[in-house]
């Protein structure tokens, strides 16, 4: 069957409830009751309305209905990168909670650009979202204060907002790296390198803090020469490994600050054919199939997304009032072999 020409398609309009009422031979009020699921309509008229709805392809305007009720039935979700596996799991968890509340999720990527984050967040607010969940890209979020004062709740996830008070859902980053270092120490390592993300990122700073805490608790001096913090890249990883492995007292173990760094390190080590004890922060897909398997400190992005969404809907519905809340989600160490190698 051929499609009508574009000019004809553009001129067509959506069928309205008046069209359905005329086709079914009933009143407009009866159509309204049927499409809104009300019970006080007899079976004959309900059947006539439903047949007319199916024949005409009528779809009710849910946005108009929600706005009359004081809600849009949508929330905004701002992530660093929707393609990142960590954030895709978090996003799916938010969607599942939103679905239970009959709410749609608008999602966007900030790409760690604070200007882009602001543009997207305000665009969501212009579309009258009922609330926002934000993975912050910058340190300043005062631009959201007018929106929050107007009644739009905001929950920050993964990192704190910096200069405003708001609900937060965070990972125990310091506790995770502390546990990883303690694990490597238990296998005899004393020269443990750390390759982290850019230092201005909150999670990178917290993970370095946990690394330092574990060393200090074990009576081992912190050594700047064992630490690299910058945006993950193949070149940065190669330079970091050169410095760590060619020093007079080289690293015998390595802790990677995030999954992208871990993957980059694995690729580089494979080219050099070097055996090095390794623990990654964040799990990596197929990490259990490597030889040896990859030992990781695993976050729970699904639990983070669900916690953020539950907290947001508690604010939207008024079930949660009062001071801001901070929810901290724990990590777990998964030993698979790479972190259990003794010093060479």
Share of residues in helices: 40-55%
* Integer tally of domains: 3
What is the H level of CATH, i.e. the homologous superfamily of the largest domain? Response regulator
**For the CA atoms, what is the radius of gyration?**
27 Å
The termini sit apart by 70 Å
Sheet having the most strands: 6 strands, parallel
What is the CATH class designation of the largest domain? Alpha Beta
Q: What's the CATH topology name of the largest domain?
A: Rossmann fold
Uncertain spans, ≥5 residues at pLDDT below 50? Answer: 5-11
**Mean pLDDT across all amino acids:** 89
The CATH architecture of the largest domain would be 3-Layer(aba) Sandwich
Annotation field: number of helices = 13
Strand proportion: 15-25%
Protein name: LacI family transcriptional regulator
Domain HTH lacI-type: 15-69
Keywords: DNA-binding, Transcription, Transcription regulation
GO molecular function, one term: transcription cis-regulatory region binding
